[in-house]
Write a structure and sequence with these properties.
The complex is a heterodimer of chains A (349) and B (273). With 349 residues, chain A is an alpha+beta fold. Chain A is built from eight helices and 19 strands. In chain A, the strands form four sheets. A six-stranded mixed sheet of chain A has the order 6-7-8-3-9-10, sandwiched between helices. The longest helix of chain A is centred in the middle third of the chain and has 18 residues. Chain A is elongated, with a radius of gyration of 25 Å. The relative contact order of chain A is 0.12. In chain B, 80% of the residues lie in helices and 0% in strands. In chain B, α5 packs across α7 and α7 crosses α9. Chain B is built from twelve helices and no strands. Classes of the chains: A alpha+beta (349), B mainly alpha (273). Chains A and B meet through β6 and α2 of A and α8 and α9 of B. Bound molecules: adenosine-5'-triphosphate and magnesium ion. Adenosine-5'-triphosphate binds next to α1 of chain A.
């Protein structure tokens, strides 16, 4: 147990082809800085779990791929020698042991003396705020409690890296949100390097220092949550993360002309027809008189913290607009919109 | 509503109760009574322990059954988990071959042991051509052991395969990530998960071995197992009371083992959730 927090992880040319011929992961190179939380985000079947398992040592990369923990080449090390902590979607708690014994298991395997073991278990239980559950059977725990125990078990041995595969997916929305915050705080207070797999973009935004968006076995973009959200490198990333409006307009005389009006866009080069993208919250609702863009409310959805409107007439297709205003809109009502040119995005693909 | 449902259920199980009473409970009661009304009286029951010949038979039957059970659990346990996890060419064929003895009566199994290790058996042929003398073990306890193992393995293998299929691979991966080597994974994760299946199939295996007759009869071994003794007392010596008493003892031991195993399996199943 080298309890050194913040091991840097480096993958070099790691691909994975399964015996049945499925290529789950294309050649992937990736660096994780020590202490950083990186989130692998992507649709089902894109290879997130496979990538995590390559890091863990549960799958070995195809010929030529290498995995480094700091400067140590661990490619041929089996998982039991890598000292990684794993948290599974199914929790994978040992049903034949109670909560305390589950948390103590890794310490026992590592030969930690019983009294030291007990102290560490106490510490973990306190940290996860589940001290009263120590003697409980696993079957007597709620999903949220199980996930806390699973986390405690994984970090009790002070792993070099913590790997979490959709740890919150099996929980209900409210609990998911709460645990997401707790995990984020925990990971940063421990200073541990962590890789977190999810297909939930909200979770990725909340937890990741960096997000690696994956598609069809490849990492298609890495960046901070803000970069990924506001500067998606491809239309896949743009569409996968949040809602993105995609409209076609004509650039003429320093402005983008749309069916519902125009957006001043002086610094944009070129001219002619082009496709641009913008986020729903980048279109502001303004006084109709003198508004640069005009449209008609087609539908409205009250989401609690905001209202989402589907607006026609602005562009060649219905656009989605979000506002935090409290007022209610009417279907068929005309509204004015303003979109700052800085919010407009052009993609090459 | 409730009452009517119960009455309906009672009506449904009534035939089973009647058949059970007529063909099982009544003969059983009669057997128990007959056992105590021979020339030895109630002492027929204690004869199992006091008479060295009977006691010997009882002891060797139990030892044989326990050994067979343990050996079967080890062999079939490993093979069952292996077969469940590895998909290779000829796997299906191997499984159906391993489970073939399920369809064989004990007499046939005994006959096959003779073909294998009898006076003109295959093993003897081989050892004698290599100049090591003719190895014959069909008529000793080793022959019985071979035969019993042969018909015990199929039942256990099928149960273990079914249980192994339900093992959660994430549990093993979690244990390994915490530093457990493959051996520890077996002890800490796989065996506890297979425990109910091992207990249940082990109990069946033990009970079957205790009562097996055909194989022992065909092999006509020098050591006598309890079912053979019962047969001899009954048909050859017409010592009906003693045969009944021995039958009762055999039945009680077997029944108690099964009952205990159910309790144990229930407890571990509850613990495992
Ligand atoms: N053991 C395996 N053998 C063969 N193919 C596999 C194996 N494991 C995964 N795959 C395939 O590899 C691809 C990537 O799988 P992976 O589990 O990494 O996806 P994922 O991104 O984690 O998806 P999800 O969000 O559904 O969990 C899938 O097409 C999957 O069917
Ligand atoms: Mg997955």
């Amino acid at each position: 147990m080298n309890g050194k927090a913040g091991t840097a992880i480096r993958l070099v040319d790691c691909a994975k082809t399964f015996p049945n011929g499925t290529r789950a992961l294309d050649k992937t190179s990736l660096e994780m800085r020590g202490g950083e939380t990186i989130v692998f985000l992507g649709p089902s079947g894109c290879g997130k779990t496979t990538l995590l398992r390559v890091i863990a040592g549960l799958e070995s990369p195809d010929e030529g791929g290498r995995v480094y923990f700091d400067d140590e080449d661990v490619t041929s090390q089996p998982i039991e020698h890598r000292n990684v902590g794993m948290v599974f979607q199914s929790y994978a708690l040992f049903p034949n042991m109670n909560v305390g014994d589950n948390i103590a298991y890794g310490l026992k395997v590592h030969g930690v003396a019983p009294d030291k073991r007990a102290r560490r278990v106490d510490e973990m239980l306190r940290m996860m705020q589940i001290s009263e559950l120590r003697e409980r059977r696993i079957t007597e725990l709620s999903g949220g409690q199980r996930q806390r125990v699973a986390l405690a078990r994984a970090i009790a041995v002070q792993p070099r890296v913590l790997l979490l595969d959709e740890p919150l997916t099996a929980l209900d929305a409210l609990l998911r949100e709460r645990l997401r915050i707790e995990i984020d705080v925990l990971l940063h207070s421990l200073g541990i390097t962590a890789a977190y797999v999810t297909h939930d973009q909200g979770e990725a935004m909340a937890i990741g220092d960096r997000i690696a968006v994956m598609n069809k076995g490849a990492i298609v973009q890495t960046g901070s949550p803000r970069e990924i959200y506001y500067k998606p490198a491809s239309s896949f990333v743009a569409d996968f993360i949040g809602t993105m409006n995609r409209v076609t307009g004509t650039l003429r005389g320093g402005a983008l002309e749309l069916p519902g009006g125009r957006i001043d866009w002086a610094d944009q080069q070129g001219s002619g027809e082009m496709q641009v993208l913008f986020r729903p919250n980048d279109a502001r609702i303004v006084e109709e008189a003198g508004a640069p863009l005009r449209g008609v409310v087609e539908q409205q959805f009250f989401l609690g913290d905001r209202t989402r409107l589907h607006v026609t007439g602005v562009a060649d297709r219905t656009v989605v607009v979000e506002t935090t205003e409290h007022r209610e809109f009417r279907v068929g009502q005309s509204i004015g919109l303003r979109i700052e040119p800085g919010a407009l995005l052009r993609l090459r693909d | 509503m409730r009452g009517r449902e119960n009455r309906f259920l009672l009506l449904m199980v009534a035939p089973a109760i009647v058949v059970g009473a007529a063909f099982f409970l009544l003969p059983l009661a009669r057997l128990a009574v007959v056992g105590a009304t021979g020339k030895l009286g109630i002492a027929a029951y204690t004869a199992v322990v006091t008479n060295p010949q009977y006691f010997q038979a009882l002891a060797s039957t139990i030892v044989l059954s326990v050994t067979v059970t343990v050996a079967t659990l080890v062999i079939a346990g490993i093979a069952g988990v292996f077969l469940e996890r590895n998909h290779f060419l000829g796997r299906e064929a191997l499984i159906s071959m391993l489970t073939l003895p399920l369809a064989f009566p004990g007499v046939v199994v005994g006959f096959m042991v003779i073909m294998l290790a009898g006076r003109t058996g295959l093993i003897g042929e081989i050892t004698s051509t290599f100049g090591a003398g003719r190895l014959v073990f069909a008529y000793s306890i080793a022959g019985l052991f071979t035969g019993y193992i042969y018909f015990s393995i199929p039942r256990v293998i099928l149960t273990i395969m079914a249980a192994a299929e339900k093992l959660d691979p994430a549990l093993e991966e979690a244990a390994r990530s915490l530093g457990a080597n493959p051996w520890r994974v077996i002890v800490d994760v796989i065996l506890p998960a297979l425990k109910p299946a091992l207990i249940a199939s082990g109990a069946i295996c033990f009970a079957t071995s205790m009562g097996a007759f055909g194989t022992a009869f065909t092999l006509a071994t020098d050591i006598k197992v309890l079912p053979i003794v019962i047969y001899t007392e009954f048909t050859l010596l017409a010592n009906i009371a003693l045969a009944a008493a021995l039958s009762m003892v055999l039945g009680i031991i077997t029944w108690a083992t099964l009952a205990l195993s159910r309790v144990a399996a229930g407890a571990t199943a509850a613990a495992a959730g």
